[in-house]
Design a protein that fits this description.
Layout lengths: L2 H14 L5 H16 L3 H4 L16 E3 L8 E5 L4 H12 L6 E4 L4 H5 L7 H8 L4 H19 L6 H9 L3 E3 L2 H18 L4 H8 L3 H8 L5 E4 L8 E5 L10 H7 L2 E6 L4 H9 L3 E4 L2 H20 L4 E5 L8
Parallel strand pairs: 2-3, 2-9, 3-4, 6-7, 7-8
Antiparallel strand pairs: 1-4, 5-8
Length: 319
Amino acid sequence: MKLKDIRDFFVKEGIKADPRGLDVVRQDLLKRKEEYDALSDKKKEDYDIESLTNPYYDSRILYGDEDIEIRTIMVGVDIEGQEILIAKQLIDLGNKVDLIIAHHPEGYAYSTFYNVIRMQADILNKQGVPINVAEKIVSNRVKEVQRDLSPQNNERIYDTAKLLNIPVMTAHTVADNHVASFLQKEIEALKPTYLKEIVELLSKYPEYEHASKIGHAPFILNGSDYSHCGKVFVDMTGGTEGPVESFEKLESAGIGTIVSMHLSPKSAVEAERRHINIILAGHISSDNLGMNLLFDKLENKTFTELKFIECSGFRRFRR
């Protein structure tokens, strides 16, 4: 596949797996198109045209010829300068590295990814939080993250990739959508009574099994093995951790258990105060699951086994 085909495929599949639902994503893209059409010609020159078809600012090609053919991909959960230098060394030693894919956003995908957080309002709304309430608490979180990103030096990875002429792209929310939707469906099919049943389910997947071997097993943060689950919400997409205020609203909406990748101490305390059980599935392991589900689809589409070079916490598990 060409690089642009991989990007387009990831976006298409990310939309299909989006927990907001296809109609909400389409409405989001339509709103962007209306905003773009209303701009002056001068302002249109600076508009991010790709955002009209790609709703995920954090899943982008950072550098590289979009028409280059891709067969060997170096994949890492985090890609920084040292990983690109490793790729250059591998190339110098005679190995093929057609593309580097980072899960976590870098470059332009990082400096603009606060826009992805807005999708959390619709996700909360699907869990029973009134949309007007969800929008207000999420907008505060968007401003907080945008402020934190503004002083960052976000061009380092782009510059390194360009200087060494190695294509780099990111696949963040497109993958996170997959792990969130996949686990939500698996847990709903299981219909667990107790928290321990969810932990046992997670432990069956190779990504979590591998994590357990290196000391990062899924665990119950709030609650105990025989705490009743109640209504379960898998909260694993939307750019970053949601607003602390969401726990009060989720409690009111009847959520009994949240399955998350990770949670800050402040959020954990608030969740416990709101009587919400928390299962931490694991950050890197959950990122791996989302990426592997996406790569499985990609290989099924191409009818070929792509060559993967694992680095920076990524492990390829095929299904």
